């Protein structure tokens, strides 16, 4: 039903300087696998086998990662080390990768609009690699959202409860609770102060968007920080039609911050990592 997923991977990763001075933050490894590969595996598991990368300058390592390295493969062919390539070979066998460059950093909404030519007129997923989401007891977050899309056929955002004093870090929603964990959104605010937040339900980096979002973004003026905010476009979409919010099952790690990245690494090493 939804075959494409967009990956906005053009950000600078300033919170990880100097490590990200010459290496994309999306290539930072959680144990032995880059963040962006975790995201691609989640998307492919949800049936989104076309991965549309919105990249920027200095991001060539991402394109190289999702390609064959003939020299490396030749050097380790037939050795015990070859098994270390199994996970990325599986991704390359199942996925198709397209790329476009975001020339200016003007916000997530602008990044989504930059990737329009890779998507076309169809619903699509969006995955932010900074948010590592794991669900060992069932399907991944995007797979859960695809099932919800089958029912509602509208844009969907993944949400989680956050401490009230943390709302300034997120887009925050308010709306009618239809059933446990599912809300019809009527209000969305980008990074509100705690006293201005409509709730403590924060949007994390998983979306399913309908293609009319592109035209809405085109008419959306710059918002918080002078950037074109996807949250503002989704607010317009919610006012005109329908946007759902879904409290996903699983764990989310904020790998855009050093503490969250360390927490994710510790968790994956102790609970997920399996040496070939």
UniProtKB/TrEMBL annotation:
Top enzyme class: transferase
Keyword Transferase: yes
Pfam family, one: NTP_transferase
GO biological process, alphabetically ordered: UDP-alpha-D-glucose metabolic process
Stored CDD domains: UGPase_prokaryotic
GO molecular function: UTP:glucose-1-phosphate uridylyltransferase activity
Keywords attached to this entry: Nucleotidyltransferase, Transferase
Domain of life, per lineage: Bacteria
Protein EC: 2.7.7.9
Ranges for domain Nucleotidyl transferase: 10-267
Catalytic reaction annotation: alpha-D-glucose 1-phosphate + UTP + H(+) = UDP-alpha-D-glucose + diphosphate
Transferase is among the record's keywords: yes
Family note: Belongs to the UDPGP type 2 family.
Function: May play a role in stationary phase survival.
Protein name in UniProt: UTP--glucose-1-phosphate uridylyltransferase
């Amino acid at each position: 039903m939804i075959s494409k997923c967009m990956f906005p991977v053009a950000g600078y990763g300033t919170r990880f300087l100097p490590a990200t001075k010459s290496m994309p933050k999306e290539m930072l490894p959680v144990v032995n696998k880059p963040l962006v590969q975790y995201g691609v595996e989640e998307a492919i598991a949800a049936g989104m086998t076309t991965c549309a990368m919105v990249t920027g300058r200095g991001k060539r390592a991402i394109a190289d990662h999702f390609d064959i390295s003939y020299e490396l493969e030749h050097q380790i062919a037939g050795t015990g080390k070859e098994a270390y390539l199994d996970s990325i070979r599986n991704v390359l066998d199942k996925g198709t990768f397209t790329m476009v460059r975001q020339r200016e950093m003007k916000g997530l909404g602008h990044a989504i609009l930059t990737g329009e030519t890779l998507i076309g007129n169809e619903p699509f997923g969006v995955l932010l690699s900074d948010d590592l989401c794991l669900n060992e007891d069932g399907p991944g977050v995007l797979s859960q959202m695809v099932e919800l899309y089958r029912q509602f056929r509208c844009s969907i955002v993944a949400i989680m409860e956050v401490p009230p004093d943390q709302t300034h870090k997120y887009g925050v929603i308010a709306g009618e609770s239809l059933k446990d964990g599912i809300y019809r959104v009527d209000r969305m605010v980008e990074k509100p102060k705690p006293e201005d937040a409509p709730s403590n339900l924060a949007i994390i980096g998983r979306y399913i968007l309908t293609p009319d979002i592109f035209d809405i973004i085109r008419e959306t003026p710059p918002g918080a920080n002078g950037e074109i905010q996807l949250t503002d476009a989704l607010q317009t979409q919610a006012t005109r039609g329908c946007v759902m919010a879904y409290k996903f099952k699983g764990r989310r790690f904020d790998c855009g911050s050093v503490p969250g990245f360390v927490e994710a690494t510790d968790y994956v090493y102790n609970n997920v990592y399996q040496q070939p």
